[in-house]
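Budget justification note: compute hours in this period were largely spent on complex prediction jobs such as the one shown. Inputs:
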Amino acid sequence: MKVTRGEVEHVAALARIELSEAEKDDYAEQLSAILAFFDRLQEVDTRGVPATSQVLDLVNVLRPDERRPSLDIEGALRNAPDPAGRFYRVPRILD
Amino acid sequence: MRLYEQTIQSLSERLRRREVSSEEVTRGVLERIERLNGRLNAYITVTAEAALARAREADRILARGEARSPLAGVPLALKDNLATAGVRTTCGSRMLESFLPPYTGTAVRKLEEAGAVILGKTNMDEFAMGASNETSFFGPCRNPFDPGRVTGGSSGGSACAVAADLCAAAVGSDTGGSIRQPASYCGVVGMKPTYGRVSRYGLVAYASSLDQIGPITKTVTDAALMLGVLCGHDPLDSTSANVPVPDFPVTCRGEVRGLRFGVPREYFVAGMDPEVEAAVRAAVRVFEGLGAVPVELSLPHTQYVVPAYYLIATAEASSNLARYDGVKYGYRARGPFANLREMYTKTRAEGFGSEVKRRIMLGTYALSSGYYDAYYRKAQEVRTLIRRDFERAFEQCDVILAPAAPTPAFRIGEKIGDPLQMYLVDIFTASVNLAGLPALCLPCGYTREGLPLGLQILGRPFAEEDVLRAGWAFEQETLAARRKPPLD
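Corresponding output:
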C-alpha cells in the first residue's frame, strides 16, 4: 500500500502534528513499507466475523449520577503552561 | 548476605522478625542506585528522601506488629507511566518532562497502603511505544548482562532495576509485550495479568483495550505476592473486571502432574534464534519430567498478530494521545503562534519523539475515512479470530508455552532504524494482549554469550493460578541455574 506525500500531509493535519519537508518524505516511505506488510490482513476471510473492541464484554459501566468531590482549581492549574487567574491562556480561537 | 539481592519474600520474613529494618534495606538499595544508575540509566527519578521517610514509617508499623502485607517496608520501583501525586511522571517523553500528577493511581495507591517503599520512577520507551527502551527522551536503558545491548521495552527501566538489584521488585505495564519481553532480555520474572484484573486508573493510556499493569520480580512467588496486592475491581476504571482475587501466593505452590501444556507449532518460525528454540524445547522436557502432559497445538492466525496488534494499538493511541496539546499541562512549544492550531501542531511536533509520531500517524491513517474498514475494522475482526484460536487451543490444554521474543537482547542501535523490524519483535507477546490472556515470563537459560532467555506461560482468561503454578514448578527445577549480571 503506497502512502503518498499528499496523504501524509492529510494525516498529519488530522493528527495536528507539524512535519518538516524531510519528515513528510520519510513518513511516506516508512508508512508505505509498514502498511504493505499489514496488507496481509486482507488474505483473512472475516465474513460473518464480528469485530472485537474489548475482551471483557462489558456494557455501559455507569455510576449513580451523584455529585462527588473533583479536582480543585489549584490542582487543575498546577501544570498549566500559561495560567491566567482561574484560566488556561491560549492563542485566539475565533477570528 | 547482600540485602539488595533479596526477594520480596525473603525481605518480608526478615523485616517481620526485625532482623533488619526497612530503613537499612532502603538505604542499601539507594546507595546501589547511586553507584550504578549513571551506567545503566534504569531510573528517571529517584525519590530518596521520601523513600527513607516511608521506610521509617514502615519500621514503626513493623515494630508494633501491625504490618498487614508482605510488601510492608519493601523497596519497589515504578514505571514512569504510573501517576504518582506530586512526583514527576514523564512517560519517557519531553511532552511530560516536568509533569506532576495531581493524583496517585489505584495500583500504586494499593502498594503504598500495603506499606511498600517507593524508590522512584523507571525509564521506559516514550509513552510505552517500543521494544527496546531506545525511544525514551531520557536516553536508552542498558542491559545489566551486556551494557552494549538493550533491556527490551517498554518497561526497560523496571526490568533493568530488578535484574541489577536496584529494587526488590518493580511495576511495569504491558500492551504488546512490554513487561514480558524486557523481563526475558534482563533475566527476571514478569507477569501480565488478564485484561481487567488490575485497575488502569492512573496508568497513562497507550491502547485502552490492551494495556495492563503487572509486576516485574526476581521470583515467581514474588510476582504472586505483588499480584495479590495489585489486583481487584476498581470503580474508577470502567474496564476493571469485577471478579474475586484468589490467594495467588498460596495457590501457586502446587503440582503440575497431569497439567496439559502445548507449544504452538507456528511459534517455531524462520528467523528465530536457534538458542531461543533450544531453550523452549528444553523447557518442554522439564515440564514432561514433572509429569505435565504435552499436547500438539496450532494457532493458525499467528502470522496476522503483528499487523492486527499494530493497527489496533496505534488507532487507540492516536485517540489517547490527542490530549497532549499544550493547553492544560505538559510541554508547550515557544510562541508566538499564528493561531491555536499552530500551537497544537508545533507542540506535538516538538513534544513527541519520532516513534510516537509514527504510531500516531499510522493509527490516524487506519481510522481515517476511506481506510477505516480495510485497516481498523479488519484488524478488529482478525482479533476475534486470534481470540478464537486461543479458545480452541485451551480446549486441548491448560497452559501454553512460548518464547518471549525471537532473539535474546539485541545491540543498542541495531533495530531502531527499521520500525518494521522492531515491530516483529512482538510476534510472541502481542497475541496475548489481543486475546486478553494472563501470561508469565520467566528465565529459562542463557545463550553461549551469557544473555538471558525467557519462557512465556499463557493461561485462560482469569486463570493466573494455573500460570503461576506452572511457573513456580518450573522455577523450582531451574532456580539453581539462574545468574546475576556481572556488575560488581
